[in-house]
Amino acid sequence: MTSPFPLFHVPYVPLDRIIDFMEPKALVSLSFCSQKSNSVIKTHRKVSFDGRLLIGGSDKNASFLSFTNYTFGIVLKRNQVLRAHKFVDNINYENMELVKMGGQHVQVEVDHLHGYLISYWDNTVNGLKVITDYVTNLFNIDVSEIWASKQSLHMIEWVNSRQKTPLRNVSFADSSTTAASEEEMIYILKDCRPISRLGIHLKPPKNFRFTGKFPKIDCLEISDGKWVTLDNLLTMDGIDIVLKSSTLTNTDLINFLRHWLSGGCPRLKLFSAATGSLDILHVRDGLLPNPVLVEDRRDYTSPFGYKRTLSFGIDVKRADGVTATVCKQVNGTLIIAVWPVTTYNSN
Questions:
Q1: Please, are residues 120 and 108 in contact by the beta-carbon 8 Å criterion?
Q2: Bridge partners of 84?
Q3: CA distances for 24 relative to 49, 69, 79, 91, 297, angstroms
Q4: Residue 272 confidence (pLDDT) above 80
Q5: Burial zone of 198 (CB within 10 Å; 0-12 exposed, 13-18 middle, 19+ buried)
Q6: Hey, CA dihedral for 278, 283, 285, 291, is it positive or negative?
Q7: Mean pLDDT lowest for which of 188-197, 257-266, 319-328?
Q8: According to the model, what pLDDT value does residue 331 have?
Q9: Which InterPro entries does this one have (predicted)?
Q10: In three state form, how does the secondary structure of the chain look?
Q11: Nearest 5°: phi and psi at 167?
Q12: Which of 1, 128, 130, 244 is deepest in the core (most CB within 10 A)?
């Protein structure tokens, strides 16, 4: 039989190293043991975390906090540190541990497969706020990224109101088939201003149009982009712009390319629009005499990690000497890839 390890009797220097080597989810669990354990973690944790703090609120029945290095990808469950689940009828909560968060006692249990704590709430959005306050206070860290749904749109405003550091990345997604309202779409496009990356993965309302100026977003990804018009494109200033579904015409795309050639959208590195009906020769003829036909196959990786294979396209050159390859992929997607290939520092 082994004896308990007297962690808090360890001298400060080795204690600092022990705390620094512990995973965030283990530290969160340890912090609930006593006021002393909570205080020790706050004062002895010195190294920075591997990743940025992400709020995952896209599920109305379960939200989570996680540290991640890859925005908008799959967050591994082992990287999650604390979850907020909605009470359900088929679980016995009586024997669960109670911990104190936000001035209230909360029932929690350990996910034994992945090691993080699950907390239970009548309202998961309120629970998400409480666990966010707890974790950011424990680690003295700000929220960098949010995955939001229609139910948790206001989390953006709430996070922005509680920290000076602006949000880096925001993704809106919803698993329901119900379209977003016009007010929700306008809020995302006008009032939500992440400084780096915005993903919109919501079904837009029927006949939706946005008449305002697009915010300056480094990386913009829109899953259902059939509402995006040429006028919208001409107000964009981004590095990567990806429209996974689009109704833009050949003429629209020619006019956008002319806009870029004349100095518009100067930071652009990748533009992708899945129109399904692109005529690359029509585009070439619309840009004469500038374009050069290119038949060689080339691989391109954008600053935000989108990988594209370029084949049978045209090269166009701006007055400042910057060259872009314009090509059509097998699925009808137009690609504009601006050379040279560069990387984006997200830190």
A1: yes
A2: 63, 119
A3: 8, 14, 8, 27, 45
A4: yes
A5: buried
A6: negative
A7: 188-197
A8: 84
A9: F-box_dom, F-box_Sdz-33
A10: CCCCCCHHHCCHHHHHHHHHHCCHHHHHHHHCCCHHHHHHHHHHCCCCCCCEEEEEECCCCEEEEEEECCCCCCCCHHHEEEEEEECCCCCCCCCCEEEEECCEEEEEEECCCCCCEEEEECCHHHHHHHHHHHHHHHHCCCCCEEEECHHHCHHHHHHHHHCCCCCCEEEEECCCCCCCCHHHHHHHHHHCCCCCEEEEECCCCCCCCCCCCCCCCCEEEECCCCCCCHHHHCCCCCCEEEECCCCCCHHHHHHHHHHHHCCCCCCCCEEEEECCCCCHHHHHHHHCCCCEEECCCEEEECCCCCEEEECCEEEEECCCCCEEEEEECCCCEEEEEECCCCCCCCC
A11: -65, 145
A12: 128
**Both tokens assigned to 255:** 């006019």
Give percent of the chain above pLDDT 90. 56
Q: Is the pLDDT of residue 81 over 60?
A: yes
Encode pLDDT of 43-72 as tens digits.
888 877 777 899 988 677 788 889 876 544
Nearest to 117 by CA among 104, 98, 102: 98
Token digits of residue 82: 């604390």
On the question of pLDDT at 240 being above 80, the answer is: yes
* Sign, CA torsion 149/152/156/159: negative
Q: How would you classify the pairing of strands 333-338 and 270-274? A: antiparallel
pLDDT, residue 25, reads 94
Helix orientation angle between 24-31 and 124-139, rounded to the nearest 10 degrees: 100
Q: Are 305 and 341 in contact (CB under 8 A)?
A: no
Tokens read off for 132: 């966010």
Q: Is the pLDDT of residue 344 over 80?
A: no
Q: Please tell me the pTM assigned to this model.
A: 0.87
Nearest to 292 by CA among 316, 273, 326: 316
